[in-house]
Specification:
512 residues; single chain; NADH_UbQ_OxRdtase; oxidoreductase; transmembrane; mainly alpha
Length: 512
């Protein structure tokens, strides 16, 4: 496939066109809302496959499929896009999840017959969000990245506030306040960074702002501005409290995009902006960030164990998982960084599946309270099986994709920080507790009254969940192609940070 074709621009524009088509559908054609949305998202998957074929995996550490055009020359802002292996992997995960969200939302928003206008608006917002997500994972201009970072809040705010549960407005406003606060602090840091750079018509290009000579104190403040915004988005302890409320009150499809995709922008920003732009400050802050990551791992897992609401439980598991991702990034070994990059993809798959299946359960029962379920393994065996596989992937069972990434994070971290890796390993044990106990409460034991006739996964729902289960199995047994995408960027990142890699095998010398 030709790399001269503007793959990334096409991937950004196509969902926007789809959203416009949905909003402009005449009243007589609105019965085709679902079909139109699904067609555009599947076309996006085809474009993503084309971008993958045009990408040279042998040079995955370099920015490819790049385009650079002047946008606001007087301010030094450019429309600059390009992806390395990590950006491409996250982009592909995102475009695969969106059509599954469309399928899952097929009967949402009261559309038992013809699609309602609510569903049409919801699907259009999902397409707008998809365009922003693709753009932010490929942005190579810091100001362009910031604009997208903030623009993503708009569709998510309405997807939570207009289409969610009983406390949707509270959850949407809380999400917006947290995100805007981090974004405004980041904007100050973006402007200050620009003033340290070469200026000119392309003064915000990431390449032009890397390896600058910045006063050490100022560099630490700039790092803090970027890191705080990304930590809120990630989300990390202690700026994570918006997530459980959002997940509890959003629709399942919104939660898939919010937790499975959008939150990855935080860890992606740490990896691709914080580390290369502020290498000395990153090394200085690493011990503190590692402590925060470990607290997130343990704290998120313990709170997940204590949850009664199914959606909040899944949200807290993500706080724990993001702790592993951040730990691997700031452990500064090629193994841990590659593991974190792969973890971002695998978390999107497993958490996306958990939210979708949980949504199907809640829609049938009319309740998110775990105590309202029980004994469903006999009634809905397919749903029970898929939930179990997704849960086992979340607890990193060998043979499923998350195991590979979590193993790499822990092994890579142990090579440089043995104590941190040992403490973080407690998160694996706690994950087994919250996953297996949740499965036990929902699916085992006697069937609760009123659940005897609950329908199992329908064909459409199986198509929504099936690809995620298949991806977990394939990447669990054959992770090589995905690792080929994320390993070279990990080595490049360590060179930019200015640290010497510690091979994972060196951990043997630190074993007690």
């Amino acid at each position: 496939m030709s790399s001269d074709f503007p793959w990334l621009t096409a991937l950004i524009v196509l969902p926007l066109v789809g959203a416009a088509v949905l909003w402009l559908l005449p009243a007589g054609a609105r019965r085709h809302t679902r079909t139109v949305a699904l067609a555009f998202t599947l076309a996006e998957v085809a474009l993503g496959a084309g971008a993958l074929l045009a990408f040279d995996t042998g040079d995955a550490g370099a920015q490819q499929l790049a385009e650079t055009h002047q946008w606001i020359p007087s301010l030094g802002v450019s429309y600059a896009v390009g992806v390395d292996g990590v950006g491409l992997a996250l982009l592909l995960m995102s475009v695969v999840l969106v059509p599954l969200v469309v399928l899952a939302a097929w009967r949402e928003q009261g559309s038992t017959g013809a699609p309602s206008d609510r569903l049409r608006h919801f699907l259009a917002l999902a397409l707008v969000l998809e365009a922003f997500i693709v753009a932010v994972f490929s942005a190579r201009d810091v100001f362009f990245f910031y604009v997208l970072f903030e623009a993503m809040l708009i569709p998510v705010y309405f997807m939570i506030g207009a289409f969610g549960g009983a406390q949707r407005r509270y959850a949407a406003i809380k999400f917006l306040i947290y995100s805007l606060t981090g974004g405004l602090i980041m904007l100050v840091a973006v402007i200050a960074l620009y003033l340290q750079g070469p200026g000119g018509k392309q003064g915000f290009l990431t390449d032009n702002l890397t390896a600058l000579t910045i006063d050490p104190t100022l560099e630490k403040w700039l790092f803090a501005g970027f890191f705080l915004a990304f930590a809120i988005k990630a989300p990390m302890f202690p700026v994570h409290t918006w997530l459980p409320d959002a997940a509890q009150n959003a629709t399942p499809g919104t939660s898939v995009l919010l937790v499975g995709v959008l939150d990855k922008v935080g860890t992606f920003g740490m990896l691709t902006l914080c580390l290369p732009l502020f290498p000395a400050a990153s090394r200085w802050a690493a011990p503190f960030v590692i402590v925060l990551a470990i607290v997130s791992i343990i704290y998120g897992a313990l709170l997940a164990i204590g949850q009664k609401d199914l959606m909040r439980l899944i949200a807290y598991t993500s706080v724990s998982h993001f702790g592993f991702i951040v730990l691997g990034i700031f452990a500064f070994t090629s193994t841990s960084v590659a593991g974190s990059s792969f973890y971002m993809v695998n978390h999107g798959l497993s958490t996306g599946a958990l939210f979708l299946i949980a949504g199907f359960l809640v829609a049938r029962r009319g309740s998110q309270d775990i105590a309202d379920f029980g004994g469903l393994q006999r009634v809905v065996p397919v749903m029970a099986g898929t939930f179990l596989v997704a849960g086992l992937s979340a607890l990193s069972l060998p043979g499923l994709s998350t195991f590979v990434s979590e193993f790499l994070v822990l092994v890579g971290t142990f090579a440089r920080h043995p104590a941190a890796a040992i403490v973080a390993s407690l998160g694996v044990v706690l994950a087994a507790v919250y996953v297996l106990w949740t499965y036990q409460r929902i699916f085992t034991g006697p069937v609760r009254d009123g659940l005897e006739t609950m329908p199992d996964l329908r064909t459409r729902e199986r198509w929504a969940v099936g690809p995620l289960i298949a991806a977990m199995l394939v990447l669990g047994f054959v992770p090589g192609p995905a690792l080929d995408l994320v390993r070279p960027p990990a080595s490049v990142t360590l060179e930019q940070v200015g640290v010497t890699d510690v091979p994972a095998s060196a951990a043997e010398g630190s074993t007690p």
